[in-house]
Amino acid sequence: MARCFICDKTTVFGNNVSHSIRRTSRKWKANIRKVRAIVDGTPKTISVCTRCLRSNKVVRNV
Cys-Cys with 15: which of 23, 26, 27, 49 at CB 3.0–4.6 Å? Predict the structure, then answer.
């Protein structure tokens, strides 16, 4: 299962509920991207969610 390196966001499970209130299981997947970033002064490839990327919590290795 994919997990964000910064905030530990991962897949969440729940139910689809139809109009007749029948329930089937479903999952919401986090929008995870692999990026090259600076971690502890060295460039590494990490999995990060797009919200952490947008909010500049990751220092990109350009």
Answer: 23
